[in-house]
Write a structure and sequence with these properties.
Largest sheet: none
Strand content: under 5%
Helix content: over 70%
Structural class: mainly alpha
Radius of gyration: 13 Å
Number of strands: 0
Order of helices and strands: H
Shape: rod-shaped
Number of helices: 1
Distance between the termini: 37 Å
């Protein structure tokens, strides 16, 4: 975790969080 401390790790985490949020919203939208 402390490997990407220069900013790459936080950016990757942000992309992962956005992707998970998109998947959750997409699945809930398709379920409706």
């Amino acid at each position: 975790m402390s490997y990407g401390n220069g900013g790459y790790g936080s950016g990757f985490a942000l992309i992962v969080v956005l992707f998970i949020l998109l998947v959750i919203v997409g699945t809930s939208y398709f379920n409706y």
